[in-house]
Design brief:
GO terms for molecular function: ATP binding. The protein is of the alpha+beta class and 136 residues long. The chain has helices at residues 15-30, 37-55, 100-107; strands spanning 5-11, 61-69, 72-79, 110-116, 119-127.
Length: 136
C-alpha cells in the first residue's frame, strides 16, 4: 500500500515511547499493514527511547513519520540533538544498554541517520512483504 504518510510529534518524556508504539500499531492496522505492526513498533520503541534519553533538554518534542513507498514501510524518528549521532555498538555481555540499534539493524531492510538543520533523523526501511530480501 504505497503512497500513505503520517507524521506526529511526541513530547520528550518516557511515556511517549509507549504512546508512539501504540500510534504505530493503530496506524499500520488502519493501513492494512498489521503484519508489520510488531516489528515497526519495536523499531519505534528503540528509536523513541534513544530520542528521549539522549535528546532530553535539547527540545520538547521528537517527530515520528511513517510512510509507504514502493513496497517499503519507512519509519523516521527526528529530534533536535545533532551532536549525538547514533552508531551501531558492540555492547559487552554485562552492559545494561547499547543494544537498541542492534535490534533495529536485525529487523530493518536498511537504516541510517541523516543530519537536519536542527538535529537528525534516524530512518528505517521495513519490507511490506515477508518475501522481500534484507539489505536492499
Amino acid at each position: 500500500m504505497s503512497g500513505r504518510a503520517c507524521s506526529r510529534r511526541f513530547r520528550m518524556r518516557r511515556t511517549s515511547v509507549s504512546a508512539s508504539r501504540r500510534h504505530v500499531e493503530t496506524t499500520l492496522d488502519g493501513w492494512g499493514l498489521g503484519g508489520l505492526a510488531e516489528p515497526a513498533a519495536l523499531v519505534v520503541s528503540e528509536l523513541a527511547t534513544d530520542a528521549v534519553v539522549h535528546a532530553t533538554g535539547v527540545a520538547e518534542f521528537f517527530e515520528l513519520t511513517l510512510s509507504c513507498r514502493d513496497g517499503v514501510l519507512v519509519v523516521e524518528v527526528s529530534d533536535s540533538c545533532r551532536w549525538r549521532m547514533p552508531e551501531l555498538g558492540k555492547p559487552g555481555p554485562d552492559d545494561l544498554s547499547g543494544r537498541g540499534l542492534l535490534i533495529v539493524d536485525a529487523l530493518a531492510q536498511a537504516w541510517g541517520v541523516r543530519p537536519r538543520d536542527a538535529g537528525k533523523t534516524v530512518w528505517v526501511h521495513l519490507a511490506e512483504s515477508e518475501d522481500a530480501e534484507r539489505g536492499g
